[in-house]
């Protein structure tokens, strides 16, 4: 099969060569956005993880910077895994997980610090925590934030010795010495063996605990992907380090390709999220057509996060000039550019938006997204939204599609590969 949309994305972060996965160390620092990410620059496998680095002043155009963090020391020799950023006194603190493969093949993890005064040159400071007792070596992905009390908190994804996924909270007064407070969400026990990439996001009304639990049982309409990313709205108690959920578990993105997001504050205190448009099965991953061109995976667009009725609402940062599909009946739009957007106000009981490789179908108050899987060649679908749909925004950039329903009340990310020179998108209203 010859795929046509293998061009480079226009406004998404992707690696020129190699494999990208999680966004790391997201920060607005000294007048620029810095996006670091998990990066294997040697090939398109997950074998060797450094941090890649892009900078931007608009979240749309990206400069590729030198690779700032590479496995080199006894504590990170087999991988500089994911972590987050914190700025204090004009200095950037980057927390990450050093991975070491022991002689018997098992992996050890070390929570490490690197500091920087410019965001480009990182100085490794080594491990900052002893391994917590009662937990396996699957402890990783530090995220650091400051409480309203001025103290610093770190969340760490972890696995208990009896193989239950969880998150740990640590506290510090100086960002160097950390004390374990306990599990972050002790009131919750999910059927999951590991929680990756925890993030605490504090919005005006509630706190949001975002995490990527592995092994959740699949339900008819939720948690269909290899792994899902989920969240609770609730309250984080700075005295105990515990988060109390006030809502059921929600999926953060309803599409096929979304994992390990990170949220950071922009210059106007806005909350901005990037995720990895990723986590396919190993078979699907090695069949991703861009691999023939030496690279694989992208991040999602930057998404501005807000809250509405204890739910996270996300809208993307996209170029101003993107194409708009008007609200005509039965319109058919031939799209020859690989990147663009359509915004619609369907306000009807039944409609569909179809292209050769993906479809959005709205019927009986339910929106589903289908695509042709590039590996199995089968159609697969996800339930994206239930209820009245007033607005819909679909963006596509090379092979990354993103759907935003009702001003971001639901979002779905999907990779798609098309063998057509021009993408024809048909819009049918009934
Ligand atoms: C999530 C993850 C993290 C880890 C990193 C390694 O995708 O597994 O838990 O730090 O990727 O690349």
In angstroms, what is the radius of gyration?
Answer: 21 Å
What characteristic shape results from the CA principal axes? globular
Number of strands: 33
User: How many strands, which pairing sense, and closed or not: the largest β-sheet?
Assistant: 6 strands, antiparallel
Strand content: over 45%
Number of alpha- plus pi-helical segments: 1
The end-to-end span amounts to: 34 Å
Question: Keywords, please?
Answer:
single chain, 430 residues, mainly beta, six-stranded antiparallel beta sheet, five-stranded mixed beta sheet, 1 helix, 1% helix, binds beta-D-fructofuranose
Word description of this protein:
This protein has 430 residues and is mainly β. 1% of the residues lie in helices and 49% in strands. Strand 7 and strand 8 form a beta hairpin. It is globular. Bound molecules: beta-D-fructofuranose.
Protein topology:
Elements: E1 18-29, E2 32-40, E3 50-56, E4 63-64, E5 80-81, E6 85-88, E7 91-101, E8 107-116, E9 123-127, E10 140-146, E11 152-159, E12 165-172, E13 179-183, E14 194-202, E15 207-214, E16 230-237, E17 242-245, E18 250-251, E19 259-265, E20 271-276, H1 282-286, E21 295-296, E22 303-308, E23 311-316, E24 331-335, E25 339-344, E26 351-354, E27 358-363, E28 366-372, E29 379-386, E30 392-397, E31 400-405, E32 410-415, E33 423-429
Parallel strand pairs: 1-21
Antiparallel strand pairs: 1-2, 2-3, 3-4, 5-7, 6-7, 7-8, 8-9, 10-11, 11-12, 12-13, 14-15, 15-16, 16-17, 16-18, 19-20, 20-22, 22-23, 24-33, 25-30, 26-27, 26-33, 27-28, 28-29, 30-31, 31-32
The structure holds beta-D-fructofuranose (FRU).
């Amino acid at each position: 099969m010859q795929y046509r949309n293998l061009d480079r994305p226009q406004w998404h972060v992707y690696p020129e060569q190699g494999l990208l996965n999680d966004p790391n160390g997201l920060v607005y620092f000294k007048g620029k956005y810095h996006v670091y990410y998990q990066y294997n620059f040697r090939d398109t496998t997950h074998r060797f993880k450094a941090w890649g680095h892009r900078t931007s002043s608009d979240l749309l155009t990206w400069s590729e910077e030198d690779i700032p963090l590479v496995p080199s020391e006894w504590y990170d020799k087999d991988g500089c895994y994911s972590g987050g950023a914190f700025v204090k006194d004009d200095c950037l603190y980057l927390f990450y997980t050093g991975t070491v493969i022991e002689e018997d093949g098992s992996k050890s993890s070390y929570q490490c610090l690197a500091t920087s005064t410019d965001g480009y040159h990182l100085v490794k400071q080594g491990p900052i925590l002893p391994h917590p007792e009662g937990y396996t070596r699957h402890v990783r992905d530090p995220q650091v934030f400051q409480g309203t009390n001025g103290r610093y908190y770190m969340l760490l994804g972890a696995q208990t010795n009896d193989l239950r996924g969880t998150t740990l909270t640590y506290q510090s007064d100086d960002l160097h010495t950390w004390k374990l407070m306990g599990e972050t969400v002790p009131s919750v026990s999910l059927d999951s063996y590991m929680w990756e990439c925890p993030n605490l996001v504090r919005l005006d009304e509630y706190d949001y605990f975002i995490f990527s639990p592995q092994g959740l049982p699949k339900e008819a309409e939720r948690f269909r992907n290899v792994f899902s990313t989920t969240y609770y709205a609730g309250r984080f108690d700075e005295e105990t380090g515990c988060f109390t959920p006030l809502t059921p578990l929600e999926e953060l993105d309803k599409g096929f390709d979304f994992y390990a997001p990170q949220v950071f504050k922009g210059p106007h205190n806005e909350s901005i999220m990037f995720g990895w448009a990723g986590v396919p099965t190993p078979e699907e991953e090695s069949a991703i057509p861009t691999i023939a061109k030496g690279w694989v995976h992208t991040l999602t667009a930057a998404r501005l996060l807000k809250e509405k009725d204890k739910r996270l609402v996300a809208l993307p940062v996209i170029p101003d000039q993107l194409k708009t599909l008007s609200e005509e009946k039965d319109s058919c739009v031939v799209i020859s550019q690989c990147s663009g957007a359509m915004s619609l106000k369907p306000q009807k009981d039944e409609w569909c938006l179809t292209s050769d490789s993906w479809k959005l179908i709205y019927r009986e108050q339910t929106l589903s997204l289908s695509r042709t899987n590039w590996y199995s060649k089968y159609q697969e679908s996800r339930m994206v939204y239930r209820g009245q749909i007033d607005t819909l925004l679909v963006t596509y950039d090379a092979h990354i599609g993103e759907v935003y329903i009702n001003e971001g009340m639901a979002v779905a990310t999907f990779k798609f590969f098309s063998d057509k020179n021009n993408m024809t998108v048909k819009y049918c209203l009934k």
